[in-house]
């Protein structure tokens, strides 16, 4: 058992390129650059970028699990309390907009 329960295993995996992995990979690369010259320590740049990318991927995976869990709980609440979420009557655009009276 990992940090995501078994019920989270049914979620589709996030894309390899996502906002968190891109951001944390870039932060890892910046941390490696700050430590020395741009051309020295290329192995360190690759390593820290890869670690950041890996952490970002799994952070996105956990984020998707948490949001799916919250969505499930919210939908369950809506099913249990349908009177609180009654559908509103649909209005036409003409009913919303005030009548046009030209002023000269």
UniProtKB/TrEMBL annotation:
Transmembrane segments: none annotated. It is a single-pass membrane protein. InterPro entries: NDUC2. This is NADH dehydrogenase [ubiquinone] 1 subunit C2. One of its GO terms (cellular component) is mitochondrial inner membrane. GO terms for biological process: mitochondrial electron transport, NADH to ubiquinone. Keywords: Electron transport, Membrane, Mitochondrion, Mitochondrion inner membrane, Respiratory chain, Transmembrane, Transmembrane helix, Transport. Pfam families: NDUF_C2. Its main location: mitochondrion. Belongs to the complex I NDUFC2 subunit family. It is found in: Mitochondrion inner membrane. Accessory subunit of the mitochondrial membrane respiratory chain NADH dehydrogenase (Complex I), that is believed not to be involved in catalysis. Complex I functions in the transfer of electrons from NADH to the respiratory chain. The immediate electron acceptor for the enzyme is believed to be ubiquinone.
């Amino acid at each position: 058992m990992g940090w995501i329960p078994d019920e989270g295993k049914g979620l589709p995996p996030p894309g390899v390129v996502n906002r968190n992995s891109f951001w944390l990979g870039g932060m890892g690369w910046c941390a490696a650059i700050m430590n020395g010259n741009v051309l020295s320590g290329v192995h360190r740049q690759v390593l820290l970028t890869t670690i950041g990318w890996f952490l970002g991927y799994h952070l996105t995976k956990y984020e998707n699990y948490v949001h799916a869990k919250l969505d499930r709980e919210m939908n369950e609440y809506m099913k249990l309390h349908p009177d609180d979420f009654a559908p509103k009557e649909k209005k036409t655009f003409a009913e919303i907009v005030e009548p046009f009276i030209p002023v000269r």
